[in-house]
Design brief:
By secondary structure, the protein is α/β, with parallel strands linked by helices. The protein has a domain at 4-20 and 31-36 and 70-86 and 99-197: Dihydrofolate Reductase, subunit A (3-Layer(aba) Sandwich). The chain has six helices and eleven strands. It has helices at 37-40, 43-50, 59-66, 78-81, 133-144, 155-163, and strands at 4-11, 16-18, 71-77, 106-110, 118-119, 125-129, 148-153, 169-174, 183-184, 196-203, 208-214. The strands form two sheets. A nine-stranded mixed beta sheet has the order 5-6-4-3-7-1-8-11-10, with helices on both faces. Strands 2-9 form a two-stranded antiparallel sheet. A hairpin with a 5-residue loop joins strand 5 and strand 6. Residues 9-208 form the Bacterial bifunctional deaminase-reductase C-terminal domain. This is Dihydrofolate reductase. One of its GO terms (molecular function) is 5-amino-6-(5-phosphoribosylamino)uracil reductase activity.
């Protein structure tokens, strides 16, 4: 059965999914890169994102590899695609990742400003959705053709889908880092009241991995 899920999403110990002051030079915000120490050295990240060999193969890598399993489409907020604000100045910006992004499936980008789809190397295609999260999810489910839809972030996008009751599973990696400020993922969201519970946990030297699932009775039709 296909799922809508969040995977390999990192939070600081004080609950922030990104630091303040996101920019072209600091896409994860001030201090945000240190959140992802558990991920950057894994074999999966090095191969799929950086195109490099080697890397760790322990539990952190296991969660990283699982995050790509059975994914047929992604949904990203505009910040996750690029730092440009307002109307697109031109078609020059094609994402953070170069000509061959690590997705290899259709990706639906939430934005208020229309833009033609982008066909990239490796099977990735970016589609810019201007009519909201429900429309993006419908399109992503159709494109996924029975596979999972992964909500890639950022924080605001995940919060919107959480509050809409549209997510079935989340893998959150809590990093032993304090940011003090930034974008809080769960502030004001009562997960138990929404039917969420922790169904898996594993601690490594660099992260506490938590898998949360939502009771089927709370799944939105």
């Amino acid at each position: 059965m296909s799922k809508v899920r969040v995977a390999a999403f990192t939070l600081s110990a004080d609950g922030f999914g990104a630091g303040p002051g996101q920019s072209l030079d600091r896409p994860l915000g001030v201090g945000g890169e240190q959140l992802h120490g558990w991920l950057f050295g894994t074999r999966t990240f090095r191969q799929m994102v950086l195109g490099l060999e080697g890397g760790s193969t322990g539990a952190d890598d296991g969660f990283s590899a699982r995050s790509f399993d059975n994914v047929g489409a992604w949904i990203l907020g505009r910040n996750m695609f690029g730092p440009v604000r307002g109307p697109w100045p031109d078609d020059g910006w094609k994402g953070w990742w170069g000509p061959n992004p690590p997705y290899h499936v259709p990706v639906f980008v939430l934005t208020r400003h229309a833009r033609p789809p982008l066909e990239m190397e490796g099977g990735t295609s970016f589609h810019f959705v201007t009519d909201g999260i429900d429309a993006a999810l419908r399109r992503a489910k159709a494109a996924a053709a029975g596979k999972d839809v992964r909500i890639g972030g950022g924080v605001s996008t995940i919060r919107q889908y959480l509050q809409a009751g549209a997510i079935d599973e989340m893998h959150l990696a809590q990093s032993p880092v304090l940011l003090g400020s930034g974008e809080s993922l769960l502030a004001g969201i009562d997960l138990p009241a929404l039917g969420w519970r922790v169904t898996e946990r594993e601690s490594t030297a660099q992260a506490m991995h938590l898998v949360l699932t939502r009771a089927s009775s709370h799944v939105r039709s």
